[in-house]
Amino acid sequence: MVSVKVEFLGGLDVIFGKQRTHKLNVPSNSGEEVTVGTLIDYIVEKMIKNAGDKCVFIENDSVRPGILTLINDTDWELEGEKEYVLEDGDIVSFTSTLHGG
């Protein structure tokens, strides 16, 4: 299990009970390391209450294009995306860059 802080910014908080910051204890799958991919699965399965909102956050088994994903203030693409192994105290931020108008 890994303890991380997760932030939903740029309007994403709406699908997470209008709460921007969450402290999560993410369990490992069968004793494996907890990765960002594990975290994303956890968010989709446990935190998104309305099934219709899942498409706002996830597409093709990954974070939807238009959502900037940062791991400790670094673009997740530089950190290995879903393969990044989380450590206690990591901060993962999801920021929507798509705004209605």
UniProtKB/TrEMBL annotation:
Places the protein is found: Cytoplasm
Source organism: Lachancea lanzarotensis
Gene3D superfamilies: 3.10.20.30
HAMAP family hit by this protein: Urm1 (MF_03048)
PANTHER family, per database record: RURM1 PROTEIN
GO BP term (any one): cell budding
A Pfam family matched in the record: Urm1
Numbered residues of crosslink Glycyl lysine isopeptide (Gly-Lys) (interchain with K-? in acceptor proteins): G101
Post-translational modification note: C-terminal thiocarboxylation occurs in 2 steps, it is first acyl-adenylated (-COAMP) via the hesA/moeB/thiF part of UBA4, then thiocarboxylated (-COSH) via the rhodanese domain of UBA4.
Entry's family note: Belongs to the URM1 family.
GO MF annotation list: protein homodimerization activity; protein tag activity; sulfur carrier activity
Keyword list, A-Z: Cytoplasm, Isopeptide bond, tRNA processing, Ubl conjugation pathway
Top-rank taxon: Eukaryota
Protein name, per record: Ubiquitin-related modifier 1
1-thioglycine: residues carrying this PTM: G101
Pathway, per record: tRNA modification; 5-methoxycarbonylmethyl-2-thiouridine-tRNA biosynthesis
Function according to Swiss-Prot or TrEMBL: Acts as a sulfur carrier required for 2-thiolation of mcm(5)S(2)U at tRNA wobble positions of cytosolic tRNA(Lys), tRNA(Glu) and tRNA(Gln). Serves as sulfur donor in tRNA 2-thiolation reaction by being thiocarboxylated (-COSH) at its C-terminus by the MOCS3 homolog UBA4. The sulfur is then transferred to tRNA to form 2-thiolation of mcm(5)S(2)U. Prior mcm(5) tRNA modification by the elongator complex is required for 2-thiolation. Also acts as a ubiquitin-like protein (UBL) that is covalently conjugated via an isopeptide bond to lysine residues of target proteins such as AHP1.
Annotated gene: URM1
GO cellular component terms, A-Z: cytosol
Chief subcellular location: cytoplasm
InterPro entries membership: Beta-grasp_dom_sf (IPR012675), Mopterin_synth/thiamin_S_b (IPR016155), Urm1 (IPR015221)
